[in-house]
């Protein structure tokens, strides 16, 4: 029959969940240490406990060496000759033990032994807890609230206590001592005071486990959960896919009249859950992930960086972004892609800016319009109008919205811009020396062929009647004019002028004759 001491050790082992042999070893080590301290010796000392009687004996152990030359530690070693004087059959390398009386051990030695036992038991308990829960990370456990601390909640998970930090809690949840809840085991930390089991109620794994418990199709594998994105206490997005074309994955998760999903929402204390159907096509998946907002179009901007651009209607922009960006943030977590969301108006403005940048249009400082005056310039620049092109594109209504700009000022600005571009209304006087676009007559005579020049002088119909010969004669007349400059004396110059005049008169007469003949021929044909 086991002694009362050993029975106590077994009871302690069961309470702590450790092996009784570990506790027995701790007791033996404690007695050996206390005995060595009492005798003030450095000898190798061990203790042995008799399970039947409960008696603990201490022994000194010495190793046998061949001769005096091999003795390195006189306290813990002895020669073969000395050993055989005590035990004739002993061999080199064997150990001889000598009994040490533990009767004189007093209160101090007993207190030291007690501390050593407690320390050994705590270490064994820590190792047991670590080995029990370290490989169970991600597992959902049923825990009981043990106590509430200012920031943390302490749970009893059976063989150990678990701690739930503030960051792993949902803001919607309040706990009471003794309440049973489901938690996710995150990890086991080896701390100085022992291993700490960290659990969570904010992990997406908890939502996945709840769906597996409530939805039979997920439990048997017909419907699979492809992705989960969660912000504890706010909203969860879960993407599901069905392996059976006849099973609606979203409908299976929602349940009849929403019974299944409502049960999960109650467990999460009212947290909102969006269930969407998974799609391998990223653009389609993005449209569904941004629900309840309606997406106009989705395009991939950078495949390597996994970045997409989402365009929504102006009225859907705030809904797509969500409160404090929550909707688009959860969608990005669900997709594992970066999402750049824009409204139709923002996209239009961006395209216009890109087109202007590609066109490389002129950008003239507004100060070039001298007629505006310093006061008007200051008002326009203060309103962000810094180029002539921007000013020219603005309507009178837009100009009147600028602070300090009225109807008369708008009219003055319009005239100044028009003058800058060389456009004058009928009756307006052009400033002397102004280098602007020429009048219609001057514009018509610049860069045109001789036929076009003659047509401008004699009328449109007149130009058509001249024909090819009149152009050649006119060119010859111009050459004669240029040659007339070569004459050195006045008589030669006058003679040249008379010849040129005769050539021009002949040209005009021939043109008129051909015109009259054309008219007569036309009448005859009629």
Explain what this protein looks like in three dimensions.
With 526 residues, the chain is of the alpha/beta class. The protein has five domains: 4-128, N Utilization Substance Protein A, Chain:P, domain 4, CATH 3.30.1480.10; 137-200, OB fold (Dihydrolipoamide Acetyltransferase, E2P) (Beta Barrel), CATH 2.40.50.140; 281-327 and 336-354, GMP Synthetase, Chain A, domain 3, CATH 3.30.300.20; 366-430, DNA polymerase, domain 1; 449-525. The protein has helices spanning 4-16, 20-39, 80-86, 107-133, 204-214, 216-219, 249-254, 259-267, 282-289, 317-321, 326-335, 344-359, 374-382, 388-393, 396-400, 407-420, 440-445, 450-458, 460-484, 490-525; strands spanning 45-49, 56-65, 77-79, 95-100, 140-148, 153-156, 161-164, 180-191, 194-200, 223-231, 235-242, 272-277, 295-302, 307-312, 338-343. The strands form four sheets. A five-stranded mixed barrel has the order 5-6-7-9-8. Strands 1, 2, 3 and 4 form a four-stranded mixed beta sheet that branches. The longest helix is centred in the last third of the chain and has 36 residues, at 490-525. It is elongated and about 130 Å long.
Largest sheet: 5 strands, mixed, barrel
Give the C-alpha Rg: 52 Å
Percent of sequence in beta strands = 15-25%
Number of domains: 5
- Count of runs of 4 or more consecutive helical residues: 20
Secondary structure category: alpha/beta
Q: Find the CATH superfamily of the largest domain.
A: NusA, N-terminal domain
Chain oligomer state: single chain
Mean pLDDT over the full residue set:
77
Overall form:
elongated
Number of strands: 15
- The helical percent reads 40-55%
Rounded to the nearest angstrom, the distance between the terminal CA atoms is: 150 Å
- Which CATH architecture of the largest domain would you pick? 2-Layer Sandwich
CATH topology of the largest domain: N Utilization Substance Protein A, Chain:P, domain 4
Give the strand order, joined by hyphens, for the main sheet.
5-6-7-9-8
CATH class of the largest domain: Alpha Beta
Low-confidence stretches: 432-526
């Amino acid at each position: 029959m086991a002694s009362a001491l050993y029975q106590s050790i077994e009871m302690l082992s069961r309470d702590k969940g450790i092996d009784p042999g570990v506790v027995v070893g701790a007791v033996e080590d404690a007695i050996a240490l206390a005995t060595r301290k009492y005798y003030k010796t450095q000898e190798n000392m061990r203790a042995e406990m008799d399970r039947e009687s409960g008696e603990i004996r201490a022994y000194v152990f010495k190793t046998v060496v061949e001769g005096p030359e091999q003795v390195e530690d006189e306290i813990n070693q002895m020669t073969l000759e000395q050993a055989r004087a005590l035990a004739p059959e002993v061999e080199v390398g064997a150990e001889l033990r000598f009994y040490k009386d533990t009767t004189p051990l007093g209160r101090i030695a007993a207190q030291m032994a007690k501390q050593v036992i407690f320390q050994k038991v705590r270490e064994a308990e820590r190792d047991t807890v670590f080995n029990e829960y370290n490989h169970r990370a991600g597992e959902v456990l049923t825990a009981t609230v043990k106590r509430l601390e200012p920031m943390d909640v302490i749970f009893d998970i059976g063989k150990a206590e678990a701690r739930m930090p503030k960051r792993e809690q949902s803001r919607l949840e309040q706990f009471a001592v003794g309440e049973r809840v489901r938690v996710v085991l995150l990890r086991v930390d080896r701390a100085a005071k022992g291993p700490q089991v960290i659990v969570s109620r904010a992990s997406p794994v908890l939502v996945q486990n709840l769906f597996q418990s409530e939805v039979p199709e997920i439990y048997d594998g017909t419907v699979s959960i492809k992705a989960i994105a969660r912000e504890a206490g706010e909203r969860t997005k879960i993407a599901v896919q069905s392996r059976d074309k006849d099973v609606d994955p979203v409908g299976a998760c929602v349940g009849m009249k929403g019974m299944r999903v409502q049960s999960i929402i109650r467990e999460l204390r009212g947290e909102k859950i969006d269930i969407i159907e998974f799609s391998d096509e990223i653009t389609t998946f993005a449209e569904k992930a941004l629900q309840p907002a309606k997406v106009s179009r989705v395009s991939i901007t950078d495949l390597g960086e996994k970045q997409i651009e989402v365009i929504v209607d102006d009225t859907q922009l705030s809904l797509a972004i969500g409160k404090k960006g929550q909707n688009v943030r959860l969608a990005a977590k669900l997709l594992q892609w970066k999402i750049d969301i824009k409204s139709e108006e923002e996209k239009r403005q961006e395209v216009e800016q890109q087109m202007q940048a590609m066109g490389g249009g002129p950008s003239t400082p507004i100060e070039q319009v001298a007629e505006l005056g310093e006061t008007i310039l200051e008002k326009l620049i203060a309103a962000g109008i810094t180029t002539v092109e921007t000013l020219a594109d603005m309507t009178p209504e837009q100009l009147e919205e600028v602070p300090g700009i009225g109807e008369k000022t708008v009219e003055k600005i319009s005239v100044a811009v028009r003058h800058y571009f060389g456009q004058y209304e009928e009756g307006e006087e052009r400033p002397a020396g102004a280098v602007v676009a020429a009048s219609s007559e001057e514009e018509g005579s610049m860069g045109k062929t001789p036929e076009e020049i003659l047509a401008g002088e004699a009328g449109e119909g007149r130009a058509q009647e001249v024909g090819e010969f009149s152009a050649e004669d006119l060119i010859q007349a111009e050459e004669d004019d240029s040659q007339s400059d070569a004459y050195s004396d006045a008589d030669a110059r006058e003679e040249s002028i008379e010849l040129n005049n005769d050539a021009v008169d002949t040209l005009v007469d021939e043109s008129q004759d051909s015109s009259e003949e054309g008219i007569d021929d036309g009448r005859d044909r009629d």
